[in-house]
Amino acid sequence: MVKKFHETGDSVNGIVTRNNGPTSNNKIKTHYLNFGEEDQMEICGYTANNLRKYMTWAAYVATFGILRLIFHWFPQWKLYGSHSKCPLDQAEKVLIVDKYKEKFETCFVEDVKILTANQPEAVISINNTNFKNETNKKLLTVYLNDGTKKDVKEMRIIHCKKLTYVWDEDKYKFIKLIGLEKGITNSEFHTQKGNNKDEQRLRRITYGINEINVPVQSILTLLILEALTPFYIFQLFSLIVWFAESYYYYTIAIVIMSVFGISTSIIQTRKNQKNLKGTVLSADKVLVKYGDDTFEEIPTTKLVPGDMIVIPSHGCDMQCDAVLLNGNCIVNESMLTGESVPVTKTALPNNDKFYDFKEHSNHTLFCGTKVIQTRYYSNEVVLAVVTRTGYLTTKGQLVRSIIYPPPADFKFDQDSYKFIMILSVIALGGFIYTIFSKYSRHIAALDVLIKALDLVTIAIPPALPAAMTVGKLYALNRLKKKKICCINSRVINVSGSVDCVCFDKTGTLTEDGLDMWGVVPVVNKQIEKPIKDIHNRTKDFLICRGMLTCHSLTLIDSKLSGDPLDIKMFESTGWTMEEPMISDTSKYDLLVPTIIRETKLDQTNAEEIGVIQQYHFSSTLQCMSVICRRLGCEYFEAFTKGAPEKIISLSNPETVPTDILNVLKEYTEKGYRVIGVATKTITGVPFHRIPKLQREEIECDLEFLGFIVLENRLKPQTSSAITTLKNAGMKIVMLTGDNIQTAVSVARECGIIYPGHSVIDVITIKPTKTDVAKVRYQDLGAVLSYSNLTDVEKFPERKYQLILSGTAWSDINRYFPQLIPKIVAKGVVFARMSGLQKQQLVEELQNLGYYVAMCGDGANDCGALKAANVGISLSEAESSVASPFTSQESNISCTIDVIKEGRAALVTSFGVFKLMLCYSLTEFASVIILYAIDTNLTSLQFLFIDICLILNFASFFGKTEAYNKLEKGPPMTSLLSFLPLASIILFMLVVVVVQIFAYYFIQTYDWFVPFVFNPDNTIYYSCYENYAVYCVSMFQYIIMAVIFSKGKPYRKAIYTNYIFLFTIMLMIAVCSYITLEPAHWIVEALELKMPPLYDGRIFVLIIALVNFVICMFMEEIVVDYFLRKFVRPRFQNIDKSRKKYLTVEKEITEQAWPNTRSHSGTFEIIKEGCENNTTTSNVVEITKF
């Protein structure tokens, strides 16, 4: 994004100057909110223009309010009509344009407001809640997203998407208002005394009340908003036209249907709003500290950043984000991570590092999480400083993503809108034809106008939106029966297009729980024999002591709680854990230690180990550490465990066996989960200094102790599900934070890696002072060692799949971005990936044209789940809001069900759309033919077609279930592609020809009497021509319902849908009855003129039967066989296809990639120690032959 701006002009502080010649400042500068960030938006300022305002009001009157209605749909147009563009510092209103992926534009028109502290006794309204400003202090304190802090008398602000932006005069731009998460050091937090009451009031003016308030609109508001949508406005227009044509019964029926539709929509919308509000809105009371020793209980809604709060010892639900200053907290973060495993939060270190809520997440309590209990000195309170409130919190960001979801980038939806435009053009053509045709026959002008407008209402089906949702609803209900919930029905059709599925490994492909296999000790640089019975050997090896102490377990209600891996590891030792209460430990500046005690009958001689300090697991560092001391021992011991590669890198090479990587490879290739352990002896450090030691001082120059080996079994459903997905032509990708060899072993076991395919590890070498960055390709069958990397020979015909680590992914993104498409296209296993890297990979897959489904357990998969076209969470925790689908069955077989139902729903949507489209065009054709003699279909004829036939068929069309087998390749996603267009055109061609044939053939009978238009009775339509066209068209609607109801390979056969089949048979019988020998009251109601002899009636049935045979031949033989298999492949061009991965794969084959080649690129500081901002160098991708 930034690169793009650099190409077009100079960028300063988010203002891009475009060189367009001598124009005014506000025209040559494009301003941005959140410049260079993911949520970057354009912003323009506007000020009121009285002349434009008066002209707009005059236009409202002249257009009878139609212009105001259009402005309701497009508020930015109203802004253009009443305001003039101006510099941002003079703006009264702003127009904010959010361009999602440069494809979709969403506009927000917002008022510029002024907040001031210099208003004594003034009542200031913030978020619809009144606060009285009684302070004499004149400055408002604001913290901005660029890390600056300002004290101002007044500030100009705008609100957009639940966030506040503050005008910075110095930088001449609006900057996002944030909490205390940027530009503040850790030591500054420890010097905080909390806000006084005056500071609280002032900050409440700035930040508003602390709540995540989801607006619930009133029924009247929802009614007005729903009624003013384009669909219902067109419906109102249609009702007026039908009423003018005296179609009273039809008008009443449509009114009833519209009322039902509006009511249903209002009820569902209000229910969703209430459910979301009930889920996220919560409030409590909290104890706030003022100054040194003053405490007061206030509602959590009054909290503001900078307040110092007390975390109760019995726990609480966090209503804000806060930094923990002292003590420990046991927290359930399932709302954020999806894992209900409690985590321990420790006090923020008192150092000069800048606070970062991601880096210091182990010291931050997040809004929406539940504090189970706290620990500190027995009589001391646990304190935390509020950093963020309301929608600024982590929970607030999650709710914002629900309220403002990204636009659906789906070809089917886009094409459906284009088809509506095509119908509008057809309607316009019919409108013009009717006017000229009838005017030439000297029909009354009003009657001509009504007839022409009637044709417009026929050409565009008003029931189309409702009909399109039916298939999705059936699919949702079927998924619900399979214990799969969906919170976003629009994703149903998208799931039918999925051609790539990404899986997390642990907890998704494999079981959550791990079984302890044993340990592989290292003593004096020698690898000992594996030990499986650890229970009786805990004192023999230091690695066992590391298992006892190096974990984040805690006791909740006397029950061991924490990571399942840590629990399994600790329980295998047979020792016990205690957390005793110590009355006074403040003289040691120490929290209550965790005691690990040996289990013996004679407890007097039992060994005890006290855990003094913990450094929690960091996904960035890939390890955790503890400092402990054995009872009676004069020195301390530190133990570190984590990813084997990381622990080896932190260890003194003198303690690491030379063949340790081969041993690691031996276990990981068997699918075992391997954890490295190392230790360090700490001497000469006083007891009270231990908690103040920095992590970097501990995690260096360690003594390597060996490996802990655990079994990680596949879930029973995994292999069969992967096989099914691969047989369906899916690209399967594993994303995991685990070791790469373990990931490859699991991928081989479950079938992600094809048997017989080579596995190529993509390895990067960072640039140094003397050498450039390199990337190598290595066969995992080669022997790994410290000194050499053996490259593998590649041949064009060789089949291979790529694997790489998160580190390699990061390096390739930085140094070799041109390789990303090829690596993504051929990559199947991505190991040691962080949550952000998983999200990046999903986005790169989408850039190649894949429709991506992501299936994870919610741990660090939330970013990928949100970014994917279809997210499927296996967690029932609140984090499942990150994905539209949530499975109550925790295995990946749900992905098959989601894709099958999605495909069935997509094919149903195609069928329903074609049904509704052809229904409108068929009715349009009937009316055009009858208009030639100034007759038409009657009111009840229209009603019978719309209600008894079309609405009936559309209601049960989607009830056909998904096909049992997952077909290879997804269905089509484009309505404007060759085959759907051919199907619709050929069908309508047959329909029109048959109707014209019926119209003229009925005139060949001896008893035929032509229709004569009566100007005195313009609504009299009964004639033989009407009978022929109407009766033939009745069967044509039945034919289209049958023809477009596709079965195999994505849906079951039509005869399995018993209700739909029954309605088809019933309507055939009813239409035959109406055609042959209807009762007198039916003849009167439908205003039919029946042929006096049966020859004319039977001829209609014969035409209908011939029509069916021809249409079936056209659809099944011509379209689905001949055009699909022989014609379409001849015109397919993969270079122009949306599926860019096909082009990439073609290039890989043609270039025999990977091969020896050089790349030149510009990147930032590729050589270590360089001080220049940018270095241009040749970056070599090396492969030896």
UniProtKB/TrEMBL annotation:
GO cellular component: late endosome membrane
SUPFAM superfamilies in alphabetical order: Calcium ATPase, transduction domain A, Calcium ATPase, transmembrane domain M, HAD-like, Metal cation-transporting ATPase, ATP-binding domain N
Gene Ontology terms for molecular function: ATP binding; ATP hydrolysis activity; ATPase-coupled monoatomic cation transmembrane transporter activity; metal ion binding; P-type transmembrane transporter activity; polyamine transmembrane transporter activity
Record's subcellular location: Late endosome membrane; Membrane
Pfam families tied to this protein: Cation_ATPase, E1-E2_ATPase, P5-ATPase
GO biological process: intracellular calcium ion homeostasis
Membrane topology field: Multi-pass membrane protein
Residue ranges annotated for the P5B-type ATPase N-terminal domain, each copy included: 37-168
Regions crossing the membrane: 57-75, 219-241, 247-267, 419-436, 448-474, 912-933, 939-957, 978-1002, 1027-1045, 1057-1076, 1096-1123
Top-level lineage group: Eukaryota
Catalyzed reaction equations: ATP + H2O = ADP + phosphate + H(+)
Stored PROSITE patterns: ATPASE_E1_E2, COF_2
InterPro entries hit by this protein: ATPase_P-typ_cyto_dom_N (IPR023299), ATPase_P-typ_P_site (IPR018303), ATPase_P-typ_TM_dom_sf (IPR023298), ATPase_P-typ_transduc_dom_A_sf (IPR008250), ATPase_P-type_domA (IPR059000), HAD-like_sf (IPR036412), HAD_sf (IPR023214), P-type_TPase_V (IPR006544)
Keyword Secreted attached: no
Domain P-type ATPase A: 282-402
Keywords annotated in UniProt: ATP-binding, Endosome, Magnesium, Membrane, Metal-binding, Nucleotide-binding, Phosphoprotein, Translocase, Transmembrane, Transmembrane helix
Family of the protein in this entry: Belongs to the cation transport ATPase (P-type) (TC 3.A.3) family. Type V subfamily.
Name of the featured protein: Cation-transporting ATPase
Native organism: Zophobas morio
